[in-house]
Design brief:
The chain is α/β, with parallel strands linked by helices. It is 51% helix and 12% strand. The N and C termini lie far apart (44 Å). It binds fe (ii) ion. Fe (ii) ion binds next to helix 6. Fe (ii) ion (FE2) binds next to helix 6.
């Protein structure tokens, strides 16, 4: 068996009602907390109140930073950091989807690491340990509650770009993973974020950085998502099904925390700011094409991946098995009501080439992809995703 390392310094509480632990956990870390949250949904569904009550009960003074946008900007990080400094907070609580959790990580970093913040974008650039973060996801997909990653949007000359911060320092201290918080998610968010989780698990499983323990988690996540994602869209109020999907998303987050992601995430980054596509939806469109490309080149994980998706491919040829897996993923995307391609966007060929050459810059993700990727390959996959037939 291969040697491997599995690093997860986050204390994870999973289950109904675990949101109530925020006060007790925060008290161990300090007396003043900044609570970071998104639009109004955390307030509307009562999660924000529960967090504030729990903190108050344990004597932790709370300051609110509300209204974090999707794909948070560096200005948002700056405003949150200023508030944290002004109020002398010692803990940052991120309550919401990936954006509020990543913003909490960014504020925690900017509090202890001197300006400019941009110098910390990239891999392992932090100088000082950030403030402790308590992450409370309200969507089931990003896995940010257990990853050393945060994604921010920078703007240069009017051009928006997604930039990743990857550093073991930004693993949250505590993750409170409570399925009750996902009960009122709209179906479109459930679908988008669910496919993001599936993509994390599949990308981690077939990545070059894969390892036995993360593979085990990835296969379990894929199995759960493939059976429960269509279910959760049909029965959004079923706490048991919500729990299975949230658990799978947690596992998938643990996977990419070890392995990183590959071509799906790499190619998705321009689609969000340029085409205004939610992150998970961009992944949903690319995932089948990237799987087809990668699995054709390597069969190492094909059978276990197929099994976890509920497909029996033992007696099929390699080509038929790949087709069966890719069709199964397409079917899942379809069942969730997500688009299969971006034909309606009528994109210019020059923009596809621009996306592709930018994707080719990320050598790390390219090296993690199981199959060698050329610029032409990336262009071809984009063309397929955009429904442009050459
Ligand atoms: Fe993702």
């Amino acid at each position: 068996m291969q040697n491997f390392q599995f690093y997860l310094p986050t204390r994870v509480y999973f289950g109904k009602g675990t949101i109530e632990k925020v006060g007790e956990e925060a008290k161990k870390l300090g007396k003043r907390a900044l609570v970071v949250t998104g639009g109004k949904s955390a307030r509307r569904m009562g999660a924000l109140q529960r967090v504030e009550d729990s903190l108050k009960k344990m004597g932790v003074k709370t300051f609110l930073f509300e209204g974090v946008e999707a794909n948070p900007s560096l200005e948002t990080i700056k405003r949150g950091t200023n508030l944290t400094k002004e109020k002398k907070c010692q803990i940052v609580v991120g309550l919401g989807g990936g954006s509020p959790m990543d913003t909490a990580k960014g504020i925690a970093v900017a509090f202890t690491n001197p300006d400019p913040f941009t110098q910390y974008l990239g891999r392992n650039k932090l100088k000082e340990s950030p403030l402790p973060v308590i992450a409370i996801p309200t969507t089931a997909g990003t896995g940010s509650e257990v990853t050393p990653y945060a994604v921010f949007t920078t703007t240069t000359d009017g051009k928006h770009q997604k930039k990743i911060m990857a550093d073991p320092f930004i693993f949250p201290e505590v993750a409170l993973v409570d399925p009750e918080l996902t009960l009122s998610l709209p179906s479109s968010v459930t679908a988008d974020t669910g496919i993001d989780a599936l993509s994390h698990a599949i990308e981690g499983l077939i990545s070059k950085n894969c390892q036995p323990l993360s593979d085990h988690l990835a296969l379990e996540a894929i199995k759960l998502l493939s059976s429960y994602l269509p279910e959760v869209v049909r029965n959004p109020q079923d706490i048991e099904i919500r729990g299975q999907v949230l658990y799978a998303s947690l596992l998938a987050g643990m996977v990419i925390a070890q392995t990183g992601t590959i071509l799906v995430h790499l190619m998705s980054y321009r689609l969000t700011p340029d085409l205004n596509l939610p992150h998970g939806r961009a992944c949903a469109i690319l995932l089948p094409w990237v799987c087809e490309f990668n699995l054709k080149g390597s069969s190492a994980k094909l059978i276990s991946l197929a099994k976890s998706l509920g497909e029996d491919v033992e007696n099929l040829s390699q080509e038929e098995a790949v087709e069966s897996v890719v069709n199964r993923i397409r079917d899942l995307v379809l069942q969730l009501g997500l688009p299969q391609d971006l034909k309606s966007r009528k994109i210019e060929e020059s923009l596809i080439e621009d996306f592709a050459s930018e994707a080719m810059q990320d050598k790390r993700k390219l090296a993690n992809n199981p199959r060698k990727v050329t610029l032409e390959d990336v262009i071809e996959i984009y063309r397929k995703a955009f429904g442009v037939v050459k």
